[in-house]
Amino acid sequence: MDRAQKAALGSAGIGLIVLVLKLGAWWVTGSLALYSDALESIINVVAAGAAFIALRVASKPADGGHPYGHHKAEYFSAVLEGVLIVFAAMMILKEAYAGILAPKPLDTPALGLAVNAVASVINGVWAWQLLKRGREWRSPALIADGNHVMTDVWTSCGILVGVALVAVTGWLVLDPILAAIVALNILWSGWVMIRESVSSLMDASAPPDVLDRIAKTIASHSEGAQEAHDVRTRQVGSVTFIDFHLVVNGTMSVTESHAICDRIEAALRQEIEGARVTIHVEPEEKAKHKGVPVLLAS
């Protein structure tokens, strides 16, 4: 089990603890807003489990049926999390509508707020860890899980303020209204997560900053070549696939052109973690006079 899988499994465990605390907060208060918060935590646990399974699949080595590996499994997990978030939001909206029609008083709000606050602190610390590790390890599943948990944290903060206002002012209708507002925010977060994950499943290119680093690396390690063009990338989980055409002198030997390719590949792998490089060597008549400028042989 690798570090990303352990993090996903840990996320499920933390999610269970937070879920129990939030269910307790809802049970002692009867607050619809706290109920919506607990409902989202159920989704967190399910999503963390899905992330763990996706990471297990993504870690499998390439095989005959999947020569490029199984890295895209992480994006399926992220899409599932987005769908679950949208589903949770719709359920909360349904309960909020009923609550607005018939608002209910809160029981022991102070105790419920205290319990929910403890759960929110735990969630906040864990979300920060997930996002930090997910970016460091370039794991879409962990980043999606971290964003999901962080959404839960902001949701909880808004709910804590809202329920406190209900307790102080006695305006019972604030409770379901707050739940509805939170649901709309959750709905938007789910949509963004689905949109970004689907884009990655469609082989979106690497981010602009990564493309810039790739171009500079090719340019500074291509001495002996004449031109590099048609540079293409696609990012799949922790792997960045890079391919391009390298133009060399038509009289250059295979051994010499191969040495240039080896030098560029080694530099790209050092600069871009998880890089998989494919270079197509072409003679000078194939030059397009555009693309990445390279160092010319002296």
Automatic annotation (TrEMBL):
SUPFAM superfamilies: Cation efflux protein cytoplasmic domain-like (SSF160240), Cation efflux protein transmembrane domain-like (SSF161111). It is a multi-pass membrane protein. Pfam families: Cation_efflux, ZT_dimer. Residues 14-202 form the Cation efflux protein transmembrane domain. It is found in: Membrane. InterPro entries: Cation_efflux, Cation_efflux_CTD, Cation_efflux_CTD_sf, Cation_efflux_TM, Cation_efflux_TMD_sf, CDF_Transporter. Belongs to the cation diffusion facilitator (CDF) transporter (TC 2.A.4) family. NCBIfam families: CDF (TIGR01297). This is Cadmium transporter. The lineage of its organism: Bacteria, Pseudomonadati, Pseudomonadota, Alphaproteobacteria, Hyphomicrobiales.
